[in-house]
Amino acid sequence: MSVLENRYRLLLRVYPAGHRADYEEEMIGVLMAGSAPERRVPPPAEVADLLRSGLAVRLGRLGRAWRTERGSGWRDAAAVAGLVIAAMLAAVAGRRLVAGLRVLLFSSPDQPMAMFGIRGLLLLDVSLRFAFWALVCAAALFGLRRTAAWLVWPAALVELGAVIWWLPGTPVQSSIRLSWSLVTVGVAIACLVVARRGRPVPVLFGRRGLVLFSAVAGGLLVAEALAELDFATGRAWPVRIFELALFLLVATAVLTVAPGVRGRVAVLLVPAFAGPITWELALSSGLLTIVGSGDDLFAQIFLVLAVPLIAFAAALIVFQVWRRTLTNGHATNGHTTNGHTTNGHATNGHATNGHATNGAERFEVGEQG
Predict the structure, then answer these.
(1) Claim to verify: residue 141 and residue 193 sit in the same structural domain
(2) Which of 65, 94, 117 is the last residue of a domain?
(3) Distance, CA of 202 to CA of 181 (rounded, Å)
(4) Are residues 29 and 173 in the same domain?
(5) Using 50, 70 and 90 to split pLDDT, how confident is the model at 131?
(6) Which residues of 161-185 are buried (b: 16+ CB within 10 A; e: fewer)?
(7) Backbone dihedral angles phi then psi of residue 14, each to the nearest 5 degrees
(8) How many structural domains are present in the chain?
(9) Residues 240 and 100 grouped into a single domain
(10) 341 pLDDT exceeds 60?
């Protein structure tokens, strides 16, 4: 191999491997035939042309893959994920609403109401958060995709507005803890906006799935209220009922939809729950404290803002690898079945039997004649 040919082959690596396998030798032959015998370096014009055309082929394949991927279940998964996140945010707001009502109606007047809502508004902000997220859930469950996509914006505005209102009078560490809702609400907006052109939730769930999801979502809200009322009497639940009910809600939504959508739903839910779950695990294990400074502060910022992005990227990679493994496995099984079992025995066998039967019929007809 000459130096010029070697350099041409290096340039051709800009093309996808499949394209090189089909056309590399032919392209090398054309390039070498048009070059002077003593030339050692490709002309700049050829270098630019090869790079341009190679990148065009790669981008074209990426575009076709994206168009195929875009219509392969991600919109359906976004509809389900947006519904689950909205139900979770409604349950969180509902819990604070129940706690605030308990203090307002049954506790001593000097007990502060500001810990449950914005000072001076009683429970208006918490009530609005619960109402808007509940409306988003209802719209999605009734198949009103565009309505849900519109309602998520005022719901997000109220949710994030309450957080921003809390931040100035809150310690830095607690402010970072509150900021998990920024990521979660952002995922909810993205999912419901993308899902407005997909299939509605009733079609994805079916009648039984709708009933089951509604029952579990209602159970999540009731569990939140009961846990808060039980906490007020000084008794502790043996398990963290909110996490258990939320897990049942997610599992119900994932298992209700078709197998081709389940993995995508799980991938989209990862960034929504990675921040708060990681925070709670770090607090319960003693790795972080709500009050602190220095390295602890940077660790909290990393947990709440960076972990969801890293977790989403990891989940997407795992999903793609898993799907390719399944695709390759099905392709291998299909080749073996068609090549040996079906064509080799079943098809040829039927053909042979068919010829024998036809021959026997002709013999009988001849004798009768």
Answers:
(1) yes
(2) 65
(3) 27
(4) no
(5) very high
(6) ebbeebeeeeeebebbbebbbbbbb
(7) -70, -20
(8) 2
(9) yes
(10) no
Residue 323 predicted with pLDDT over 50: yes
- The CA-atom distances, in angstroms, between 364 and each of 202, 352, 353, 355 are 62, 19, 17, 14
DSSP conformational letter for 13: T
Angle, alpha carbons 214-216-219 (nearest 5°): 110
**Number of other residues whose CB lies within 10 A of the CB of residue 310:** 13
Q: What is the pTM of this model?
A: 0.66
The answer to whether residues 50 and 81 belong to one domain is no
Contact between 180 and 273 (Cβ < 8 Å)? no
Distances (CA, A) of 16 to 24, 53, 293: 11, 11, 50
Pair (60, 87) in one structural domain: no
Say what the pLDDT of residue 108 is: 58
pLDDT of residue 339: 45
Dihedral (Cα; 353, 359, 361, 362), 10-degree rounding: 160
Least confident of 29-33, 48-52, 313-317, 365-369: 365-369
Q: What is the extent of the structural domain holding 100?
A: 73-258
- CA dist 308 and 130 (Å) reads 24
Q: Which of 213, 237, 258 is the last residue of a domain?
A: 258
Whether residues 156 and 224 fall in one domain? yes
Contact between 4 and 42 under an 8 Å Cβ cutoff? The reply is yes
Residue 338 lies in a domain: no
The amino acid that residue 29 corresponds to is G
Task: Let me know whether 41 and 85 are in one domain.
Answer: no
Q: Are residues 162 and 181 in the same domain?
A: yes
